[in-house]
Design goal:
about 180 residues; two-stranded parallel sheet; single chain; 6 strands; globular; 8 helices; mainly alpha
Length: about 180
């Protein structure tokens, strides 16, 4: 814990030197807390982060077997929420209200398999519109880019990214342009 605290202090010094502040990044203690019905790991890590420096922002994307009770437990240690669309659909407005408390931002996302075959206008352009329709602060999907940029192993792994990289620059796609249009 002492090493974490020392590292965090040095990290903040560096970020300030390059013109960044606490509002320019967030910690992500666990991917999809509640997915299997537990938030224990998330709570432990989020509490550690806040004990090091209460100004650090913590981000959560609760999903799966998450409950409103769990959200209320997570709330004191969570600054920005991004629950999955399926969880919002299942739990509804009370779920959003539990996260929103004290004006905290609530975004949403979706992580469909094989994003490359989804209709650019029907899925990618619609994400910001859905967030707006639901009264949320933002919306999106997993992810801008993925490690297998050119989808060389489609039979083994879905392609999530919306851009590619040719070794020199980012290469756009219809999916990314539809996202920009939706925004």
């Amino acid at each position: 814990k002492r090493a974490q605290k020392n590292y965090a202090k040095k990290m903040m010094e560096h970020l300030r030197q390059i013109g960044l502040s606490y509002n320019d990044f967030m910690f992500y203690p666990q991917d999809e807390p509640g997915l299997t019905g537990s938030i224990g790991y998330y709570m432990k890590r989020a509490k550690e982060i806040k004990s090091i420096d209460p100004n650090f922002l913590v981000y959560a994307d609760p999903t799966g077997a998450i409950t409103i009770k769990m959200i209320k437990e997570m709330a004191p240690y969570t600054d920005v929420w991004q629950p999955s669309m399926s969880t919002i659909r299942a739990l509804g407005q009370p779920y959003i209200d539990a996260m929103r408390g004290k004006g905290k931002p609530v975004w949403t996302y979706d992580a469909p398999d094989h994003g490359r075959v989804l209709k650019p206008l029907g899925f990618y352009r619609a994400q910001p519109w859905i967030a707006f329709d639901w009264g949320l602060d933002g919306g999106g999907y997993w992810t801008y880019h993925y490690h297998d940029f050119w989808n060389t192993l489609p039979e083994k792994e879905p392609e999530y990214g919306v851009v590619a990289f040719d070794g020199r620059e980012v290469v756009s796609s219809r999916r990314w342009e539809a996202t920009r249009d939706g925004i």
